[in-house]
Amino acid sequence: MNTINAIIIDDEERARNTLSSLLLNYCPEINVLATCSNVPDGVLAINKHKPDVVFLDIEMPDYNGFELLGFFREIDFDIIFVTAYSEYAIKAFEISAVDYILKPIDIDQLKNSVEKLKQKKLHSQMQEQIELLKESYKGDDIRKIALSMSNGLTFVEVADIVLLEADGAYTTFYLKDGQKILVSKKLKFYEDILSNRSFFFRTHRSYFINVNFIKKYSRSENAILMDNGTSINISRDRKQEFETLLKELRVSI
User: Is 144-248 a CATH 2.40.50.1020 domain?
Assistant: First the structure.
């Protein structure tokens, strides 16, 4: 998990220092950007630093913790309430707070709250990736394709794909620049996406190639040599369809 940036808002200096120290020692993934003693200062700090999460006290002079929300048109940060009062818990969860920690702070509860925050962030990132994948596959004339990686998405030009190779539940993309990218999806998934592109062809169960990168085709040996040096056999039942495609694309055979 990447660093989670945080701001602490609490009117008691001792409480701010205690929470900062506990986060430093027990939740190192939390990076405290600022600590504030009141809501107005907290609003300024949030606008300046754009934190992922705000650790927020409730009972404070002038404005309470709930009133912080009224200063923002859109809440694009998470909230973990840290308070000495248990009676606000229901209201806190009604506004979708990640958690509600009672003072004095229990270390295990603090760790659990941070874990909840991490899981929420992870789920949100996964949803964003899914939406990006869906967006990249819209339309019949996609120029780029999104490949889901462990650390996010890699977008590659469709025209730069030399070939795709099946490896069980995985697919390896071979690109024009020599790059190889292993993706945890079956070849059939990408074949369905790219099947409307006339220059892609499934030679047999293991390969899906871009005919624009064919270097040599041997009819007698049923063999294809790609520009990147990969040698591929074409199944007999696909040979006639393959040669018809080459003629349609005005590729000399």
Answer: yes
**pTM higher than 0.90:** no
* Domain over 4-131 is classified CATH 3.40.50.2300: yes
Omega before 28 within 30 of 0, i.e. cis: no
Q: What is the largest CA-CA distance in the chain?
A: 87
pLDDT digits (tens, 9 = 90+) for 150-160: 666 788 888 99
Q: What number of other Cβ atoms are within 10 A of residue 173's Cβ?
A: 21
In sequence order, what DSSP letters do the residues of 115-168 get, joined into one string?
HHHHHHHHHHHHHHHHHHHHHHT-SS--SEEEEEETTEEEEEEGGGEEEEEEET
Q: What share of the chain is helix, strand, coil (3-state, %, to 5)?
A: 40, 30, 30
Report angle CA 123, 25, 117 to the nearest 5 degrees: 15
Structure confidence by residue, pLDDT tens digits, 58-110? 999 999 999 998 998 888 899 999 999 888 888 887 778 899 999 999 999 99
